[in-house]
Design goal:
Helix content is 34%, strand content 24%. With 232 residues, the protein is α+β, with helices and mostly antiparallel strands.
Amino acid sequence: MPNIIDVQQVFLGLPAEALSAAGKDELAIPSPSSARRISAGVWWALRSRLNSTNSPATPPPVDVRHLRPDEGAVLDDLISRLSPRSRYLRFHAAVGSLNAATRRALLDFDDRDHVALVAEIGSLAVGIASFRRIPGSDGAAEVAIAVADDHQSRGVGRQLLKRLVDCAVEVQINRLEAHLLSWNVAGLGLARALFSGVITRRDADCIHLLCPIGPGLTIDITMEDLMAELLS
């Protein structure tokens, strides 16, 4: 029976030559023993890396600004340009267009407890990131981000999150949290690249990220957290 390559195996142990496939639609993975197959999540992560090699050396300038509550058309347009996979990663469900309740909740900003930023190239929205303060928490907020597929791996998500952190600190948010699907390798990598001391807690098919953002702040780390980090 063929071996299945796990997400962590791919990015920690996959030979570099595996990424130099002849074409984007097929990938040769060398194996000393038997042919290996990869899961859909790993396949898309690898495709993203292959596609990123064709990205311009200098990405076009991106402007990041606050999204206004009356800009529902901007939100609708970006969601419509996400691939089914990207929408699934963002909403953890198969989503086409937004229903009225979800759309209303996403546009319910107050620039303190719920903040949203949009990244634009010219007049085209290429990414949206937001945080919403967690009720009853000691300064925690849940963060979410979506970047148009044709602008992924170009630094858009990084710029959005950096600006979002600045906004969060201004309103006394000291910890950002996120729930990622376990095969969202790009999202996990971005969080680890941007936040020092990020803690991951795994639960079934999701990864719960805890990212302290205030100076001198810490998160209580359990033995389970340490073991999860060692095994990840």
